[in-house]
Design a protein that fits this description.
Blueprint lengths: L6 E4 L4 E2 L1 E3 L6 E3 L3 E7 L25 E7 L7 E11 L2 E6 L14 E8 L2 E5 L2 E4 L3 E6 L6 E3 L3 E2 L2 E3 L10 E5 L5 E9 L16 E10 L8 E4 L2 E8 L2 H19 L4 H11 L1 E6 L5 E8 L11
Parallel strand pairs: 1-5, 4-6
Antiparallel strand pairs: 2-6, 3-13, 5-18, 6-17, 7-16, 7-18, 8-9, 9-10, 10-11, 12-15, 12-17, 14-15, 16-19, 19-20, 20-22, 21-22
Helix pairs in contact: 1-2
Bound molecules: calcium ion (2 copies).
One calcium ion (CA) binds next to strand 17.
């Protein structure tokens, strides 16, 4: 039977600053449907007007997310598969430069808002430098099992992972902790260096087109991404070291539990081919990813 997809657009009036199971759904859909989600930038677009200032014109909360999306077929223990079909960003992005304890800009004495136009797919960073945009999603997450989490926090529910690999063509897998999953998305970046060393990327409004599918026979502990020939495990912890260990352990589990590889070979494979990379080191919890070629899995269909 031919599958029919419903296409829904919900605007950025449906904004949340926390991921929680008592958030009222902005939209209800079902497994397999395609959704277009419009998002504000992480400063709620308040820094776009020339002359607007951080802390003066901005809101108390950053990282507004659009949602939540209630997926009718999702239940605790399921896995949510989110295919990123498209990301379209606006025509003006914002970046902040200034002092900080963790990044390169600590040579600077004060903050400055940089407004960077996007023209024909290029960010005009300086009058002499244009860089091609690589749109990505900073925050994509579901409700935790209990309580609520701010949209600025990454974790096993996804959230503010700032993973540059969550982009058009990738597929994000998240655990489902509550009925309906309650998926929210925000914090698009037109461009961001791995590590997000300046504390923000090229922050920008935009829209994301996703297809959400419920995988009911697999449970995962935290976020995963499939892109091109790679499987990626994402982990967020108090330190980069802890996140590195967690991401590595979870990739070992994936190879052994889902991938048809024994534990000796799994260790060998990660020693030789596992690539540990920093997503971001600027949030309260730090995010690391372990990337591994799909060729390393004997059973290549981890999710049917
Ligand atoms: Ca972010
Ligand atoms: Ca951001």
């Amino acid at each position: 039977m031919t599958k029919h997809y419903k296409v829904e657009t919900f605007d950025n009036n449906h904004v949340v600053y926390r991921m929680a199971k008592d958030n009222k759904p902005a939209l209800t859909c079902h497994s397999g449907e395609i959704i277009e989600i419009h998002t504000l930038d992480c400063f709620s677009n308040k820094l776009l007007p020339e002359g607007s200032r951080l802390g003066v014109d901005t809101l108390p909360n950053n990282n507004p997310c659009t949602g939540p999306l209630y997926i009718g077929d999702a239940y605790p223990g399921d896995t949510l598969k989110i295919e990123i079909l498209d990301i379209v960003v606006g025509n003006l992005g914002v970046n902040l430069i200034g002092p900080s304890e963790v990044h390169v800009d600590n040579r600077l004495e004060s903050y400055e808002v940089k407004r960077i136009p996007i023209i024909d797919g290029y960010a005009e960073v300086t009058p002499n430098l244009k860089l091609p945009v690589e749109p990505m999603i900073g925050v994509i997450g579901v409700s935790p099992k209990e309580g609520s989490l701010p949209t600025g926090l990454p974790g096993d529910h996804g959230g503010n992972m700032d993973c540059s690999q969550i982009k058009k063509g990738s597929t994000v897998y998240l655990p489902v902790f509550v009925e309906g999953a309650l998926l929210s998305i925000g914090d698009l970046h037109a461009l961001m260096g791995d590590g997000e060393i300046g504390g923000c990327g090229l922050e920008i409004e935009g829209k994301v087109v996703i297809q959400v599918t419920v995988v009911s026979d697999k449970t995962i502990p935290g976020p995963m991404v499939s892109i091109d020939d790679k499987w990626i495990i994402i982990a967020s912890c108090n330190t980069l070291e802890e996140a590195s260990v967690e991401a590595t352990n979870r990739m070992l589990d994936l190879l052994i539990d889902f991938g048809g590889v024994n534990k000796e070979d799994a260790s060998l494979i990660l020693n030789l081919s596992g690539h540990l990379k920093i997503c971001q080191l600027v949030n309260r919890l730090k995010t690391v990813r372990m990337e591994l070629s799909k060729e390393c899995f004997i059973d290549k269909k981890l999710f049917k």
